[in-house]
Amino acid sequence: MKENSKNQDTQSITNRESDIQIFKDVLSNFIGTLSGSMFTYGMGYMLLDQTGLAMSFGIDMLITPIIGLLFLIPVGNLTDRLPHKKILIWSILSRLITLAMFMFTINHFYGLYKLIPVVIFLTINAISVNFSSTSYSASVHELVNDTRIQKLGSLSLAATSLSSILSPAIGATLYSAVGFDSFIYIEIIATISALLILKSMHFHYDKSKVKQENISFKDFEAGLAYIKKRALLKYVIIIAVVINFIFTALSIGIPFIIKTQLKLQTSYVGFLQSSLALGMLMGSFLMMILPDKKWFAQKILIPLLLFGVEFIMLGFIFLDEKNRIYLVILGMLVMMSLGLTLSILNIAFQVRLQTTTPTHILGRIMSILSTANSSIMPLGILFYTMLFQNGFAGGYIFILNGIVMFLYTILLFSKLLSAIKIDDILNEQQVRKN
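RESULT FIELD:
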């Protein structure tokens, strides 16, 4: 009955209204991601100037997974208990208040003491972002109908990718021109804009579904039981943890290889990172063209196999140091390919998850998936930092990563394919029942 109710609510949203909601969501996502990425870069430059710490750009990557683990249960439970729009409004308001407090206090601290307000802000910000991202992911059925879910996911990722391309250059230029304080003002304006856009959006929420009982650990256990029952989700989480661990080698290794081994300018790091974002942008537009209900197995399995091949290619490119500029061009092409395959995999799975998971449990599932993905990153950062700083050639590390990823995918290939087929059958049965 709950699934029937979800479908009825979704069908009541017209294509025109869905398109308007998508435009607002993408606009808000672009503004928020662009300003947020610029703010992160500005804060990193400021901390580097004030403290001289090499981890100035990585503090957020350590805090976010810890917050994700600590708030895993309340985020998932509250998202499935309360109206999503209310959660989003309170999340943005709390972030806005924290930004204002940060603006008035940051200049009262100097040197290493700058870390005090920064860590406090990043902690509260991580809680806010955790609630916001989970609530947005769980509210797709309240914003658009089923025929527009892939379009929403594709354009949202395209907005994020475009922001990732633009933010490094804009952030560095702006910091050199006017300093860090301007980033705070821009972030406050962007947050207010996101709040106004959110207020104008219509969430088709069925108030009769709101549960008033006390929140308990059993609610979280229900999410785990659902994942255990659905084999596809279980295997995707296992694979995603490995992928996220291996992908930290890119963020740690590429700057090290470019600056230390190839002796090239720092700007080439930006070229490679922008190529990854450009590839994700291309993948987002490609997924808008491809049908959302066809070739799901291919959209999952082919990218997984390609990841290993792409890492191996990147490793061989960085091992040959004869023509360094030429190597960077080849590296940009491989990074673009990585971004494209990553985009296809992410969107395909998100659409499947959001169109087949009952709305009343979607928040808990999204929270578990997000936390599982992010919690492995600090371990990856520490592991690959140790490898690169102990003199291992970066190219060999990437090649080894690619081999491990390829063999791991081959090992799970038959089980994952079987899980996809079972999931397809269950979804077809559910559609017939409804």
